Amino acid sequence: MKKEQESMKQDMIVILDLGSTENTVVAREIRSMGVYSEIHPHDIGVEGLKKLENVKGIILNGGENRVVDGVAVDVDPALYECGIPVIAIDHPTAKCTARYDEIPDKEALKAFVFGQCHAEANWNMKNFIEDQVELVRRQVGDRKVLLALSGGVDSSVVAALLLKAIGNQLVCVHVNHGLMRKNESESVVEVFKNQLHANLIYVDAVERFLGKLENVSDPEQKRKIIGGEFIRVFEEEARKLDGIDFLGQGTIYPDIIESGTKTAKMVKSHHNVGGLPEDLKFELVEPLKQLFKDEVRACGVELGLPHSMVYRQPFPGPGLGVRCLGAITRDRLEAVRESDAILRDEFEKAGLDQKVWQYFTVVPNFKSVGVKHNARSFEYMVIIRAINTIDAMSASVEQVPWDVLLKITDRILDEVENVNRVCYDLSPKPPATIEFE
C-alpha cells in the first residue's frame, strides 16, 4: 500500500549523494546546528525536490563512489535553476555558489545554512515529536497499528510515540523467535504488559524460526528469512484482530543508509529495510526513520521513557541470529546466549555498562583444538566485541581493563558448554561493521 505523502515543519538542507562516504558527517553537523538535514540520491531531480517540504539549501557531496559503471554520476542541471542555494564538496564542475575540496568547517557550513539559505534552527525533539504525532494521526486515522515490539531502544521509543499519537489503537506484538538474549522475552512481558499496561500479544515462534533458518549460512539470506518470517507472523496475528492495516517498525536512519542508495554502496541489508517481502500486506508506520541512534535516545527522553529503557544495550533486529555465525546450530546459539549474559553481568559490575555503547559476544561456525579436564577438546570460541559510537556509522574499540577481560574469560570457559577459547575483537568501524553479519 502506498503511504500518504509526509510533511515536516522543520526547515531542511538536502544532501545529494554523489558517491561520498561522509554524507552522514555533513548531515549530523548540520543537525547539530538545529537545522534538519537529509540525504537523498543524486538523481532525485527538481520534481523530487518539490515533493520535499521546506528545502532551504542543497549540498552536492561527491566522493570515491561517484563513478558508476565507468561514468561519473551528476545531478539534473535544472537543479541549479530551481531557486535553492547550492554548494558542492569535491565536485569540480558544479555550477553553484561555492565549491570545496573537502567538508567545509562548521563556520563555513553555518554561513551557508543561515546566511545563504536563511534556514531557521527549529530542529529539536519537541518539534520532531509534534510533527510525527500529526503525521501518524493523519496516516492512521481511526484504524489500528500492529507494532513489532522487541523491547529494544528503537521499538520502545516507537511504542511510546505511537501511544502518544493513537493510544489504544496500538497493538504491540512481541515475537520470541528463539534468537533473543537470555531472559529477554520474559523481561519484555514484565515491563510492557505488567508495568506499562500496553496491549501486548506474546507469540512463541522459536521452533518456526529455527526451522526456517536450518542450514542457512549466508548472512543476507538469514536476515531476509528473519525479516520475512516476522512479517508472516504479524500477518497471522493481524488476521485474528479487526481493523489492522498498519505495521509499526523501529527503522532508523542508519538502517536505511547502510542498506544502500544508487551511489552509496550497500553495507548490509537490514531486516526491516532490505528483508521485507514484496507482497507486504501492511502499510508501514516508521516514525523514527529520520533519526540517528543518539537522536532516538533523545526522543525517548523527551517522551518521558525511563533512563534504563532509553539507554539499554542496542540489539539487532535479527537478534542472536547474526551473532551465531554461519548456519545456526542450537549448541552455538546457546553458547552465544550464555556468554552474552556473562559479559553483560560483568560489565555492569565493573561500571562499563554506562561507559561502553555496545558490547556482545559472537560464536563463529568453526572449532579449535584445546585442553579441558586434562584431555583434548575440539570446541568453539567466543569473540567479545565492545565499541563506542555516536551514530552507529563509525565506531571505536573500547579498551576494557585487563582484569575485567580475564574474569569474563574465566567465567565463559567455566560456565559455557562447548567453548574452549575466548578472543577480543580489536577492529574499528570502518573497516569492520559493528555486527559480524
UniProtKB/TrEMBL annotation:
<dbReference type="InterPro" id="IPR025777">
    <property type="entry name" value="GMPS_ATP_PPase_dom"/>
</dbReference>
<dbReference type="InterPro" id="IPR001674">
    <property type="entry name" value="GMP_synth_C"/>
</dbReference>
<dbReference type="GO" id="GO:0003921">
    <property type="term" value="F:GMP synthase activity"/>
</dbReference>
<keyword id="KW-0067">ATP-binding</keyword>
<keyword id="KW-0547">Nucleotide-binding</keyword>
<dbReference type="Pfam" id="PF02540">
    <property type="entry name" value="NAD_synthase"/>
</dbReference>
<dbReference type="InterPro" id="IPR022310">
    <property type="entry name" value="NAD/GMP_synthase"/>
</dbReference>
<dbReference type="GO" id="GO:0005524">
    <property type="term" value="F:ATP binding"/>
</dbReference>
<keyword id="KW-0658">Purine biosynthesis</keyword>
<keyword id="KW-0315">Glutamine amidotransferase</keyword>
<protein>
    <recommendedName>
        <fullName>GMP synthase (glutamine-hydrolyzing)</fullName>
        <ecNumber>6.3.5.2</ecNumber>
    </recommendedName>
</protein>
<keyword id="KW-0332">GMP biosynthesis</keyword>
<comment type="function">
    <text>Catalyzes the synthesis of GMP from XMP.</text>
</comment>
<feature type="domain" description="GMPS ATP-PPase">
    <location>
        <begin position="123"/>
        <end position="312"/>
    </location>
</feature>
<comment type="pathway">
    <text>Purine metabolism; GMP biosynthesis; GMP from XMP (L-Gln route): step 1/1.</text>
</comment>
<dbReference type="GO" id="GO:0005829">
    <property type="term" value="C:cytosol"/>
</dbReference>
<dbReference type="Pfam" id="PF00958">
    <property type="entry name" value="GMP_synt_C"/>
</dbReference>
<keyword id="KW-0436">Ligase</keyword>
<feature type="binding site">
    <location>
        <begin position="150"/>
        <end position="156"/>
    </location>
    <ligand>
        <name>ATP</name>
    </ligand>
</feature>
<dbReference type="InterPro" id="IPR014729">
    <property type="entry name" value="Rossmann-like_a/b/a_fold"/>
</dbReference>
<dbReference type="InterPro" id="IPR029062">
    <property type="entry name" value="Class_I_gatase-like"/>
</dbReference>
